[in-house]
Amino acid sequence: MTVGIGVIGAGMIGQDHVRRITDVVTGAEVVAVADVDAARAEEVASRVHARALASGQDVIDDDLVDAVVVTSWGPTHAEYVLGAIEAGKYVFCEKPLATTAEDCLRIVDAEQASGRRLVQVGFMRRYDAGYRAMKQVIDSGEIGAPLLMHCVHRNRSAPESYHSDMAVQDTAIHEIDTIRWLLDEDIVSAQVVKPRRTSNRFEHLQDPQFMLFETASGARVDLEVFVNCRYGYDIQCETVGETGTVRLPDPESVWVRGAGQLRANVVQDWKQRFGAAFDLEFTEWVSSIEDARPAGPSAWDGYAAAVISDATTEALHSGHVVSVLLKDRPAFYG
Ligand code: NAD
Ligand code: ISE
């Protein structure tokens, strides 16, 4: 069986996923593409001999489309995910699932009403080899109960359109999901500390930010978000347990000795850093559709991340520790 995929949103990551589905993943083919920029949709569709359709809804309704990939701007995600559920089609949605917790809940409710797991959220770190190895160590009990986690999320630079709330909504949302998944528990409170700001930023931006999370068991997580670090794309994570620690490896790079120096390169963007994770994410997603057994990050994970993100945004503005108030997880989500 070949899974026919329709892509809504042919921008930076949409194009990368179109290439990936075509060149890397077996058992799937891009059959339709839509973008509000019709010329862009046409161009991207033509690269893979797919059809450019007039709207996202046309992609959802198309008979050749078995599954939908949503890679348009965040505020448009909810409409397309709800449309795909309504049509009874599997849908992979890049983060965020929706830009409000209310919209995430509407998706969770609609999916439950449909009676089947149809939605997967693009939290690709769960597919990164380093994070997977870290989870294995934590789950094995080898380092004892996790007590602390230290995380770093650095981007080389952020455009003028990037504002202070995006440090959590767009950037730290990856760690929010990763913390929940690695520790297998929810985050119960958030706090944001504002350090001295880098001069390499647009005036309106608070950068860096220092976030502190507390989990249900009392473990504490600190996260530095620094989106104008200038030197590269740098993701770090160390979990400290009662009897040991486990740390994410740096991406593979050769060591160069010369001119009196010993150096290794730093990757420059998320495409390079998580390319292999994205490949595996799509490979496993397509297999899960073939087997009709969805297993990746769920709509519930998207909802939880949105609620935690809202609490963290409130913490940024208030300067207070803000509690996270999640609804009870329905049995539907295991
Ligand atoms: P982008 O601006 O490059 O692309 C978005 C595309 O969506 C544009 O071509 C735009 O014309 C199109 N679009 C906007 N509204 C639309 C609509 N209503 N219907 C159809 N098309 C529409 O943005 P991007 O960087 O590709 O990001 C897209 C999404 O992917 C965002 O939600 C972003 O957060 C997410 N993203 C995830 C990662 C990751 O690491 N997982 C990395 C980058 C982006
Ligand atoms: C971007 O949207 C991503 O998802 C990247 O992984 C993250 O590092 C970046 O800060 C976001 O803007």
TrEMBL record:
Report the residue ranges that make up the Gfo/Idh/MocA-like oxidoreductase C-terminal domain in this protein: 135-324
Q: Which UniProt keywords apply?
A: NAD, Oxidoreductase
Family per record: Belongs to the Gfo/Idh/MocA family.
Describe the task this protein carries out. Answer: Involved in the oxidation of myo-inositol (MI) to 2-keto-myo-inositol (2KMI or 2-inosose).
Question: Which EC class is the enzyme in?
Answer: oxidoreductase
Gene behind the chain: iolG
GO BP annotations, alphabetical order: inositol catabolic process
Task: Describe the subunit structure.
Answer: Homotetramer.
The name this protein goes by in its record: Inositol 2-dehydrogenase
Q: What is its EC number?
A: 1.1.1.18
Q: InterPro entries given for it?
A: Gfo-Idh-MocA_inositol_DH (IPR050424), Gfo/Idh/MocA-like_OxRdtase_C (IPR004104), Gfo/Idh/MocA-like_OxRdtase_N (IPR000683), MI/DCI_dehydrogenase (IPR023794), NAD(P)-bd_dom_sf (IPR036291)
Q: Look up and give the organism this protein is from.
A: Amycolatopsis acidicola
A Pfam match:
GFO_IDH_MocA
Which Gene Ontology MF annotations are present?
A: inositol 2-dehydrogenase (NAD+) activity; nucleotide binding
Q: Which residues form the Gfo/Idh/MocA-like oxidoreductase N-terminal domain?
A: 4-123
